[in-house]
Design goal:
- Helices cover 29% and strands 28% of the residues.
- It is of the alpha+beta class.
- It has a 7-stranded mixed β-sheet, sandwiched between helices.
- The chain is globular and about 75 Å long.
- The chain folds into 3 domains: 223 residues, Bira Bifunctional Protein, Domain 2 (BirA Bifunctional Protein, domain 2, 2-Layer Sandwich), CATH 3.30.930; 38 residues; 102 residues, Rossmann fold, CATH 3.40.50.
- It is built from 12 helices and 23 strands.
- Helix 2 packs across helix 8.
- It binds glycyl-adenosine-5'-phosphate (GAP).
Length: 439
């Protein structure tokens, strides 16, 4: 874990938020490479959901919602709480289910009995900060979909079963945020809500469970590092009839990265009750009116980002890049899937003290830049530069050498095989496009 955290900081994936002020409550900023990687994850999820499945559309709801939504959803009234204990002397709080000791882990003081602690993040809307102005930052993105169910049905003229996908920020006042970006107070979710006939809910639950596991495997996660866990009835969240977690094997244990939930008619029936709008679906053919059941796939963008990093991180014996420097050093190789890697191509002049090589390499960089996420690097030996690119998962390194000047070509080095091949500059774009899209 510490190696990954350090790589993230050193190479511009993730920085602690407001670091010059000492950071802030487990918030993190995604740096130049982090934002590319995160956008790639969101893009492959979105493309998969919207393009791959029938009867699936997307939307993007506001983070701030009418506070009645949270009464209806049960987040203010039912089970959206963690039990915590508080130190009687320093007032530090701990999750009751996590602390094994009877005393404060910081100062050794006595602890209170467990108390319920709501995880909603409160804020005020408007100029007067009174109770009437209180609202909440959404703790899950899906409620924005449920309250728009009727709008989507009417505007898109769709029939059940149908799915609505959404990506967006969610906020929870976690008592003990920890494990880097695994549990934070601000995070992003990729959620899909599948509305179906209650009699078909069990079938669709199994279908989505399999599809979601497949998505992680197709995105590069190794089979032995991912598994499905059925959640016991007594542990189910307040809205769910059945839940499975997709878990990843981090160094701190098997941990949930996504949940598939059968939410029954909990959400639509409660929103009907609280809003006074009848959100039942009417089937014109069978003349049946009913609350659809919802099968939800709820993944964390940050958690999958973390799992992809974990899975890709390798240290290999020095010498892989044939540097003249210490070949005994272990080298970092980040074997991210090509769809997820932040940088696809690096352009490197063989040496930087030959102006004609630098000129040609810069021309190639300008040629490729509109088509691929590219980097140009001329600093240090060529071996060192390969190493720097391997560390950030760059798929191809293009080297401009003396032969390139005569032949108008260059070498393409493959990150995983380290094989090099010569390619004509004029064919470069189409060859790279092909290599980056084909398996
Ligand atoms: N709409 C259902 C829902 O929100 P959840 O199991 O509470 O279900 C779904 O959350 C996913 O959101 C989790 O599997 C995880 O990936 C992500 N998530 C939840 N809390 C998180 C936190 N504090 N930090 C990072 N990701 C979180």
């Amino acid at each position: 874990m510490s190696k990954i955290v350090s790589l993230c900081k050193r190479r511009g994936f993730i920085f602690p938020s407001s670091e010059i002020y000492g950071g802030f409550g487990s918030c993190y900023d995604f740096g130049p490479l982090g934002v590319e990687m995160k956008n790639n994850i969101k893009k492959i999820w979105w493309d998969e959901m919207i393009k791959n499945y029938e009867n699936m559309i997307g939307m993007d709801a506001a983070i701030l919602m009418n506070p009645q939504v949270w009464q209806a959803s049960g987040h203010l009234t039912a089970g959206f709480v963690d039990e915590l204990v508080e130190c009687k002397s320093c007032h530090k709080r701990f999750r009751a289910d996590e602390i094994k000791s009877k005393n404060c882990l910081d100062c050794g003081g006595g602890l209170t009995e467990p108390k319920k602690f709501n995880l909603m993040m409160k804020t005020f809307v408007g100029s007067v900060e009174d109770e009437a102005a209180v609202t909440y930052l959404r703790p899950e993105t899906c409620q924005g979909i449920y309250v728009n169910f009727e709008n989507v049905l009417n505007s898109m003229r769709m029939k059940i079963p149908l799915g609505i996908a959404q990506i967006g920020k969610a906020f929870r006042n976690e008592i003990t945020p920890k494990d880097f970006i695994y549990r934070t107070r601000e995070f992003e979710q990729m959620e899909m809500q599948w509305f179906c006939h209650p009699k078909e809910a069990a079938k669709w639950f199994d279908y989505w469970k399999t599809e979601r596991l497949k998505w992680y495997l197709n995105s590069g996660i190794k089979k032995e590092n991912i598994r499905i866990k059925e959640i016991e009835k007594s542990q189910l969240p307040h809205y769910a009839k059945r839940v499975i977690d997709i878990e990843y094997k981090f160094s701190f244990g098997w941990k949930e990265i996504e949940g598939v939930h059968n939410r029954g008619d909990w959400d639509l029936s409660n929103h009907s009750k609280y809003s006074g709008k009848d959100l039942r679906y009417y089937n014109e053919e069978t003349k049946e009116r009913y609350f659809p059941y919802i099968i939800e796939t709820s993944g964390g963008v940050d958690r999958s980002f973390f799992a992809f990093l974990y899975d890709a991180y390798q240290e290999v014996e020095g010498g892989r890049t044939k540097t003249t420097e210490s070949t005994k050093e272990r080298e970092i190789l980040l074997k991210l899937d090509k769809k997820i890697a932040p940088i696809k191509v690096a352009v490197l002049p063989l040496v930087r003290n030959k102006p004609e090589l630098v000129k040609k390499a810069k021309e190639v960089y300008q040629l490729l830049k509109p088509h691929f996420m590219c980097q140009y690097d001329e600093l240090g030996s060529i071996g060192r530069r390969y190493r720097r690119q391997d560390e950030i998962a760059t798929i191809f390194c293009l080297t401009v050498d003396f032969e390139s000047l005569e032949q108008d070509d260059l070498t393409i080095r493959n990150r995983d095989t380290m094989k090099q091949e010569r390619v004509k500059t004029k064919e470069l774009i189409s060859i790279l496009k092909e290599k980056l899209t084909n398996n």
